[in-house]
């Protein structure tokens, strides 16, 4: 069968069907109307988003909107965004839903320890276990699908270099405003949080772009160039609990004068003697400031506090300086508190900015801080700089550069989100001003300060009513009670006078006989407001004594000259030590503004608790024939020990030559301690032909935040580390590190956050690591000899170690590359022309890290770092 084609009959098409006509009319009329009213549409969307003035509303025209439309489409196509996936089991998600519903009904979210639920998070190929809870005080954190979460990564793992962080709707921190606030603080060296934006999916449901905000932890401190330490705050829990009540009752707790002082990760602090000691000092200092016994500059780092307050003032960040939002890091090196930026909630709206700026200066704690001229002068100078930089455009150009990548991410979802308005910032710079009873959650605050056999109970009335103390007794977990034995007869009920609103409560002190520390008992108090009211039970907390001055040792020059006959003054600012042998029964303290000069043929012998603290430049010039010797006073023909030398904040370079330092133990003042037998802090220094022998502390030589050169230096016979460099740059040439770490744990050169060169040096008999490079450091070693050591060279935690033209002999492990702190990440070690003999293990490299020998990469292995450090941890305990 032949099949042929059949041509269809051509029919005349109508150009416009009725449907097409309708669409065309709609397009011709609707399209212009849409763009004419786009400004109003945008305004409506902004109001729905409750941006509160963040977006800058410009005058718009049809042509400008037509030009903007392609840009809006481009924003929606942006795809260079980090994506995070959170998986929560149904039963745990149900618990979060119930907590959210409770908060929405009460208008506020109150937190409890058991609010956390387990979850898993994925980013790229990585999956980590975590626990999370709802986060935020107000219910704006719980709207729609974009709930705010506080997240703790488990098992020592990390995500984005963070172990603890928050995730929230960008709107709750006014979009990019919080990022710009933190980066401005960072410009001035103030502690600032890591803040960035990611796309989040929960159980397969995308909730869109969310902000990630770092929480308060050691990673925050290390990222900002600080050592691990204590972060404290005013306890705001009672303030938030009282907000649901009447005005008078809520005001009772709206004051930093009537709040406990506590710390982040307090359970961790209790496990460390050092951190517990620092916690006590930090609380004592802040309590001393609160009670008006110590000035701002004695408690806080005046420069950093002044700069922080100036940035807050400039941006109108009154929310950040509210007493319950303030966070402080205790720097154990300076013995001062440093502010940490948090929850600024800044606005680029002139009316809001003006109102917030005035309110900021009325905040009671801010007024007290600025009463100190040392703080106020820095505040004013920083404010002037911000104003000038804003007017010149320098500041806005810097902020634009910072803002750009984050703005692109947010505009993927918030397409009408604009860059911050430059003209508004300039105008901001121009207008900156220097400008019921039964329902109360508690009635008293109580704390104990105990010595060996005695204690003092401090009770404060926290409310504006008389309070009756009905009972005070010891109690244990089983509920068994014991009578409190007081030094004087105690008549109950004891009536405490009322405390006026927003004033500091007075302490009622009761002295008593203390129980043994491990008895398992604690004190409880039953109290009530005088009259018909309910009885409440308060568990007494351990507290710390108020400090009346900063623990850092200070003294007048006249007192030092009277105590030490060998000291004299020449010129306007040089203090000399007379040659000869001198016994120092007390410490030598050189105040700020002076240089200390010591020449050869001088021996200073210190008592066991003696030390030398210099707040200026040290020039010690001995000779080979007549060296300078620092040592302890001998006891029963045995060499004596002493604390050591600390040089702080030298404005000119220190110089030591032909100096011998024997048998130091490290600074051990009542509330100020340093790990180094000799310490240089923010003091550049050249050391040549010096010997550090017999150190009994953690580090024989510790250099921090300084540039240095070590030449012909010997460090030997230490119990722990020889040289420790923290956040430094410098050179080590022709040095000897011998018999280091007799305790079984001690490194030759141990650096963190540093950039160091080591050359022509020997490491002999180092028990742990001859060269240890960590925490994002770079060290280049050449022509070094390492003999009879534990580990020859180790690179860890995102560091780079290069070792060339060197010899390694008789060691347990020659070369190691691994991660000790997960937040830093993988590390690298490159060895070239290194001769290794008699090494039990040539290399050990953990998966993820990189080790190369003469151009050949070494295979990685499953290295158990935790087991590696078990012996060291046992030693630390």
UniProtKB/TrEMBL annotation:
InterPro entries: Pectin_lyas_fold, Pectin_lyase_fold/virulence, Spore_coat_CotH_CotH2/3/7. The chain crosses the membrane at residues 21-38. SUPFAM superfamilies: Pectin lyase-like. It holds the Pfam family CotH. Keywords: Membrane, Transmembrane, Transmembrane helix. This is Right handed beta helix domain-containing protein. It comes from Uabimicrobium amorphum.
